[in-house]
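Predict both folds.
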Amino acid sequence: MKLKKALLIFICFIFPVSIFSGCDYIKSIFDESETSAVESSTESSTGDGITVEDKALWYNPDDDYSVVTMYLTVKEGNSGDGTNHTWQEVNSYSVFYYQDLGIERYAVEGILQVGDENGLVEGQFGYDAIAPNSIVNVRGNTTSTAAQKSYKIEIDNGKGMWREQRTIILNKHIYDTVRFRNKLSYDLMKNIPGMISARTQFVHLYVKDLTGSNTTNGEFIDYGLYTQVEQFNNRYLRNHGFDTGASLYKAEMFEFFRYEDKIKMADDPEYDLKGFEEVLEIKGNNDHTKLINILEDLNDYYVPIEETFPKYFDEENYFTWLAFQILTGNVDTTSRNYFLYSPLNSEKWYFISWDNDGAWNTRRINDTNSIEGYEIGISNYWGCILHQRVLKVESYRQKLDEKIKEVMTYLSRDKLSPLLQRYSEVVMPYLYSTPDIAYARQTQNEYYDILNELHNFVDINYQLYLNSLEKPMPFYLGTPIITDDNKLRFNWDVAFDLDNERITYKIQVSDSYLFDNIIYETDDALLPEIEYNMLPYGQYFYRVIATNESGYSQAAFDYYEDRNSIRHYGVISFFIDSEGIYLDS
């Protein structure tokens, strides 16, 4: 290790352009000075001489239980930078409004200042600011529809930085019943080898509205408690000691398929940025060669995964990231809510967690339908090409199992309980007072009940993970078709069993998603296909349950969501009419 470090220092000294951000690669692009390299809590060698480190000392100034007070004065700006709007306009529309119109989100100019509950504090950011120093708009997708908004505050060039950051993300987490799930995850990641985390901070926000006619008469209005989290961009890469010339993508709907129609080189005549970013949002360089290479190899089943995986992924990072998501129940991470990072001159890719609101969801644990569904353990990840191919290999499953047991030591009840207590002591005084109390999703007694459930959360998810190893893996149902002899043919993918046990399929057809009126049923199909008599015009439902020799069952990936938003797993709704058969979309 010492020899490697010495060699890296020699390379950085000899060559003017280096693969390491600590060597000031493309430093001229930025007007701020480079942060210095420090010892890291996460260190992984890529095998090509490059070491990826998340700086441990970057987090040292943080007080996880403190609350920073921010004062934001908003003003109408100009049409040139799109800030010629009122604060009321900014807060009136969701992301879907802008998407429908094909326009940028409304914004205002802002004066961001940091102080304490008594007002501004000399020496803190923005203390002497009179003119606007930032641009403010609403952030988030689904959360942009909520009554309480989250905000993105972009500090102008030349107006300084707050904690070495120019983009300040303030999340309200209105759908989070405890209001600290995202922060809890990031704070835990900081201490787990193999994970890459982000700085977070509780923020108490006050806003003074000087726009339009609905101003606050020069008074700051209490907006309650927020959680600030680092924005993932070049500044994030630099602050964490990563390569600012790297490939960095945010997964939007990405399951490691090839996506030939969307994932193309930037110089391809058919390249469409909008289509590309429906799959992966580009946050790093625009050379997609490495991305295409990995997708080509992953989707080529003639290339063994035992060759592809070690070539393109860091084992420590991959299995640690996956173990953490499984144990924290962060199920919405199969196709989104993560970043992929690869240093400029390396083929290796690293997972970085993003948006952990879905983690620590005790409601999901208590939802019987979810338990019967696939969203537990490794079966939750079976629809992703990368995870499926890796987890089909017994030796890789053993490595995941070892990593899960290791990560559990960082998430033990003894370590988790004090954190939950401290976080609740910070959050509850804000959540149960104005203005946040009007949007609290439970009473204080119910809040304490949720905290009690969280103490056992990791142990429950570990048991669900063990259960997932016994069950067949989930599969997809096909669309029923009408045969030439006017029969109905139902088909589905073959289920996979980790122990290679024989699988039989139970299929039911009904005119009710509750299956309280069974039209057709068989429970001993060995092949993933059956035929049945043609049905009259109307709406129908069919489901398939795979059961292995040990008696463990698994439903299909597909589900039908009823009007009460309850998911019925393994179920497809379809219609038969004079035009044929079509699915209920």
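Second protein follows, with its predicted structure tokens after the sequence.
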Amino acid sequence: MAYRALYREYRPKLFQEVIGQSHITTILQNQISAEHVAHAYLFCGSRGTGKTSTAKIFARALNCESPVGGEPCGVCRACVRSARQDCPDIVEMDAATNNGVDNVRSLIEKAQYTPLELKKRVFIIDEAHMITGPAFNALLKTLEEPPSHVVFILATTEPQKIPATIISRCQRFDFHRLTAADIESNLRSVLNQANAQADDEALSIIAHAAEGSMRDALSLADQCLSFCGGTITSADVNDILGSMEQNFLFQLSEELIALNADKTLQMLDKVVRSGRTLPVFCQDLAGHFRSLLLAKTCGRCEDILECTPELMDRYLRQAEKASGSWLLSSLETLLRVRSELRYFLSPRIPLESALVRICHPEAAVSVSNLETRIALLEKQLSALASGAAVLAPVPPSPGPSAGPGPADPAEDSAVQTPADISPAPPALRTEKAPELRSAPLRNDAGAEAVWNAVLMAVERNNPLEVEFLSHAFPQSLQNNVLTVGYDKSREALYNIVNTKTHQDKISRALEEVRPGTRLATVLTTRQPVSDETEARLRAEFGDKLTIEE
């Protein structure tokens, strides 16, 4: 006897054997028991969910001489005859190839004749959405008022392509995608009947790869049996799928979360050398990051991820090590590069670029990446507060003339115009900046202290705004006017900051740190720090000072 594929050999023969569609099979059983059967049905759902199998069971149950609870008995003459492929009263038509008006006219002609051997003549039309518009119009009247001995069952994966006039004449049933647990359970039963075995991890991988389709799962299991014999292992399934093991994905994610680009690329090299398919690997990694993002957002969500409690615990532990915005940004990067891999002769190059980009979030300017950068800066500031020798990037400082401390009364009495202001020295970064965030601002604070406080206030309310202001340097604070300058090489930023939108944000921050103070911006040319100024600053701050040229 010729070999038959698993999904054909072990197709369900009773309603109770149909997996995951009890909301449909219960209705159909009740209709048969009560003899309230409609004349037309529309079965909708994704591939491999049991539409055609349910239609065949329904056709047998309709013609069964003694149904038991709506189920075909399987032993009567009608059940035995309807189970054969050549039964003339159960007609299966593939609308993908027989979709024209002539095919529909032939079907209508057959519907006029009474059944030859059974009580009802059942027409099962697969891929019904492929029928052309004129052919649907030809079927319309017969579908609305068919002969009493005829039942139509239309099956489709794309119900949106079925005309509304057809749908309104049918009882519609929507088949659900199968859960991974249901697929695993049925796979284990089928393999036992086929005298084969598979470990739990292999069944889980097959169930998730099937994406809700029982037929896909059985086809993959059939392929695995041909590859490894009667015992299927997780390694065999991964080899056939070209995917990576779960532990490897966790290890790679650890390196990505730690922002270790070098180790990440070394692990990707192992993937390439092992012969794995890179698009499949990228899809697996994106799926892993999706699981981490859901774990970070929803907490325990085994029902959404369709995973075991032990695996859920691993997701939660790893998700705690990363921020939600970084996980989201990384997932979007992986999905974007996954869609682009087919355009490259060497998909390794864009995938390497994406992984490096994930490990360097500071390289891209976006709100989520800025949040990541701010988090890193806060860690550095915390380290500084505890005495660690780490330089924290803080807003520029103009030098000794505008440093923190009491202002010179004589300087306050002198009024300077922008033309009289001398160019400020380069930006200075000191370790004393974290004190400005926590300590209250004194009324006699200088221009540098006020400007640093303004930048911190802007950072708290508008993190993106700091990108435009970090290149400005304070020059003077006189008569409640804080003057800051932009080097002529930064004229574009100077023009942006002088727009009303940006000025309003800065004014609100300035009012918060020093009420009654106005801001003036000027375009000037920087001059290098003098030797005397640099010597004084280095004597005060030592190695904790960085001078930008």
